[in-house]
Amino acid sequence: MATTTEEQAPVGFRENLATKLGALSNRNYRRYWFGSLASVGAIQIVTMAQGWLIVDKLGGTELDVGILGGATAVPTILVSLFGGVLADRVDRRKLIMVVSAASTALLLLLAVLDATGAVQIWHVVAIASAQGLVMGFDGPVRSSYFPLLIERKHMTSAIVLGTVMWQFSRLVTPIIGGVIITFGGTQSVFFVGVLGWTSMLLVMISLKVASPRADKSRNVIGDIVEGVKFILSRRDFVLLIGLTYSTHFFGMQYLQLMPFFAKRFERDADGFGIMLSALGLGALTGTLIVGKVRSKPRIGYIMLAGSLTFTAAVISFAFAPSFYIALGFLFIGGMANTIFFVVAMTVLQLRVPEQMRGRVMGIYTITFSFIPLGGVMGGIIARAYDERIAVMIGAIILAAIFVFVGITQPMIRNLNGQNLEEA
Question: Which domains, ranges and CATH numbers included, belong to the chain?
């Protein structure tokens, strides 16, 4: 049987390549990473276009944007627990294929409705809700599938690369989305999203790495309860997942309200995209920084300091006197916040047993639904006052939570980057 170029290479060369590239030295992981980049880009650019479509084209209000967030978040939260159980029971590769196909179909429907001028706010909300349902399976299965493609020694590398993928997407896609919306309308963005998810589907069809066989005779509810009990039995898991939930719910409300900040600074879709890209550039920079500091003995203190810096930057952004000063604070916020996410995700992935990975990651990935869910709270407050007050209140609450945990929980502040596998 023919061998690949990588297999034919001298052992010393392969080891050197693996050291330099980390998880990317694995051919299957490389293919999966680029496919994921396409679908993550689709998620980012479509989320941006949905908000802009409602606010600019359909004349929606802050409350409409909040409802859009809730319609996306609630189905994802309800399904994620079952998604985690399913990820531990079925072939994860095939499940990702189903998710990719369903996402492609939903975005194609939205693109056609928008292109024909038939789209209404309730269409956007309904399709976002269906997409949220699909995403309830996507998060847990992705988080539990990629470890099958790599050696354990590359786990931290893979997590950092996954973060880089999201942050690079956050940097590039908003600018691209703003340009596409300006010259081709939101419907063009939705068609681009279709291409992104189709790419992911084709990549998963080409991969042949299946999940280990699981005991399907077990009770589904029992499996969910077992996953919850495991997390509750581990204070480190409870604290890190709880802090992640809080960060997304209270700290990320500005993402849902970003179209209104763009309007406040008298900017159109291109300015909206630039603001999101400044955030993404900061997050990408933060990912590179955490790669340098993650092995520090006092990484717990660094992580907490980063989160408090994030809350200060968010408040400063909300009340920035000009567009360009706002961009600076978005950059700082994105950079500081990434340190917490990378460290927390690394600890969880290293400490979770393989047979529990799908369920634990299912509960963990609910966190991403707290962004649009927090947008409901932000939308209500912004409707009563304005978007700046909404963002400030959320950030102050988050800062109080991190200060309390930092003072009362030595397990978190004393996290040692040289020994993250140890509880």
Answer: 26-209+219-413 (1.20.1250.20)
